Amino acid sequence: MPTLDDILENVGEFDRFQKQTFFVLCLLSAAFTPVYVGVIFFGFIPEHRCFSPGVAELSQRCGWSLEEQLNHTVPEWGGRGASFGSRCRRDGGAWEGRVCTDPLGSLVGNWSTVPLGPCQDGWVYDSPGTSLVTEFNLVCEDSWKLDLFQSSVNAGFFIGSINIGYIADRFGRKFCLLNTILANVVCGILLVFVPTYLWIVIFRFLQGLVSKGCWTAGYILVTEVVGPKYRRTVGILYQTAFSVGLLVFDAIAYAIPHWRWLQLTVTLPSCFFLLYYWCLPESPRWLISQGKNDKAMKIVSDMAKKNQKKMPSHFEDIKFEEEDGGKQSPSLIDLVRTPQMRRNTFILMYNWFTSSVLYQGLIMHMGIAAGNMYLDFLYSALVEFPAAFIIIVTIDHVGRRYPWAAANLVAGAACLVTALIPEDIHWLKVIAACIGRMGITMAFEMVCFVNTELYPTYIRNLGVMVCSSLCDIGGVIVPFIVYRLVEVWHDLPLIVFTVLGLIAGGLVLLLPETKGRVLPETVEDVENFHGQSAPKAKKIYLHVQTSEV
């Protein structure tokens, strides 16, 4: 009895039709970058200090350079231990009558006697561009508002993961893609023009609500239109397109250092994604799972025509066999109803959480000793390409489970090594941190496509969305893990990352191997994964329809 994979072997598993679909969806993956990591450039924090009219007048009268002004008027400027006082407090005394040679000379060695007060006249920022921080003064007592800006998009990711996932499984991948693309474009453009911080946070939340669901629906679609031999490759390359987006976003941000113009520049190209209505197919697997066999076969016929393949005559008229008496509707309880589904769900949830915490946390931790923002971002993006290459080279021979477990273990061990290397051997710490970043990037990419292989078609998108929602929870709490723990010990966050990574590597070994298996169509297929030594025939069949006389 033929299955959809059997038909794909005849009409093309990854020919012109699938390559076109893959290419246009990779553009969508790359465009997700500004939403996921945009806070790095939209909310960059330049060097800043309190603005004082008296200091400005004295500096003009004395003819100071900027460096001389800082040294003469800001107590312990550049001192690591007094950074808050240097940037968030100013000398509250009168500046009239102070001499140009050394206005704070009498206070040297006794800065505690300086009458410091709040920055009631605002701040001066040493930056040629603008950001959310410089426009709304999100520093000092209001620095938490930048955290809220990033938390809002992650909160949107979290809520949207389940809701958009249900829409994609209930109404189709293409319907979900087009509607979330439109909503993302509208919210992105409105972000450029709203004048207040509150409305920016609201629209950022709404953008998060739809954008991650859009990216994941694209991932599901691209893996469902190709044959099993190419599924893992297109899944990895779809994520590599996100890495390409990191490089492009970095270049655009370097050229446009003003956050509103940058937001507009990265949003407008997404309008072209609405053309997907004409150039993207619906997933034939989803159509089959919903009993829409005629529409599925129409797409398969178009696939054969574009691939310049002839569909065998016995595949031309088929019907859908409904094992359960009708189409299957996705339900959250199905994710934990049976033992293997329950185990898969909890382990995948933990690995999504760990991948997010380590992936974002390592970037944040390396950025604490800030150098060139654009170069640091470039280095962190480039390390993702060898990670993808290693996966592609090894996974077909070894399988999914062992490389995935090894990637988590390497990431955890590298974090521990980085923490133990002395600060004066900085180059070695950077190398160890990059190895950890490479390991967690591999783990992050693998959890995406293995997640799709461990759930049946009718609930696949919902399963990915629910499990990946733990990634968003990790994204919300990781700033607190990094920035609060470094106050106790600079490398303490790395110890936390070590524990999380090692546990994740051990749990992966409890999952079934999915190498070379057809995508499961029913919960029974998932439950039988461990007992199978070879790919199992599907429970959803495409039968030859014979005419009755």
Automatic annotation (TrEMBL):
Which chemical reaction does it catalyze? Answer: guanidine(out) = guanidine(in); spermidine(in) = spermidine(out); putrescine(out) = putrescine(in); histamine(out) = histamine(in)
Query: Which UniProt keywords are listed?
Result: Cell membrane, Glycoprotein, Ion transport, Membrane, Transmembrane, Transmembrane helix, Transport
Which InterPro entries does the record cross-reference, listed alphabetically? Answer: MFS_dom (IPR020846), MFS_sugar_transport-like (IPR005828), MFS_trans_sf (IPR036259), Orgcat_transp/SVOP (IPR004749), Sugar_transporter_CS (IPR005829)
| Superkingdom, taxonomy of origin | Eukaryota
Compartments, as annotated in UniProt: Basal cell membrane; Basolateral cell membrane
Q: Which residues cross the membrane?
A: 21-45, 148-168, 175-194, 200-222, 234-255, 261-280, 347-371, 377-395, 402-421, 427-450, 462-486, 492-511
Quick one: a GO cellular component term? basolateral plasma membrane
Q: Which PROSITE patterns match?
A: MFS, SUGAR_TRANSPORT_1
List the GO biological process terms.
Answer: monoatomic ion transport
Claim: Membrane is one of the keywords in the record: yes
Q: Does the keyword Transmembrane helix apply?
A: yes
Q: Look up the coiled coil feature and give its residue ranges.
A: none
Domain Major facilitator superfamily (MFS) profile spans what residues?
Answer: 98-516
Membrane topology category: Multi-pass membrane protein
The cross-references to SUPFAM superfamilies, in alphabetical order and at most eight, read:
MFS general substrate transporter
Please provide an example of a Pfam family that matches this protein in its UniProt record: Sugar_tr
What molecular functions are annotated in GO for this chain? xenobiotic transmembrane transporter activity
The family note in this entry says: Belongs to the major facilitator (TC 2.A.1) superfamily. Organic cation transporter (TC 2.A.1.19) family.
Q: What is this protein called?
A: Solute carrier family 22 member 2
Source organism of this protein record? Aptenodytes forsteri
Q: Tell me the classification of the organism that encodes this protein.
A: Eukaryota, Metazoa, Chordata, Craniata, Vertebrata
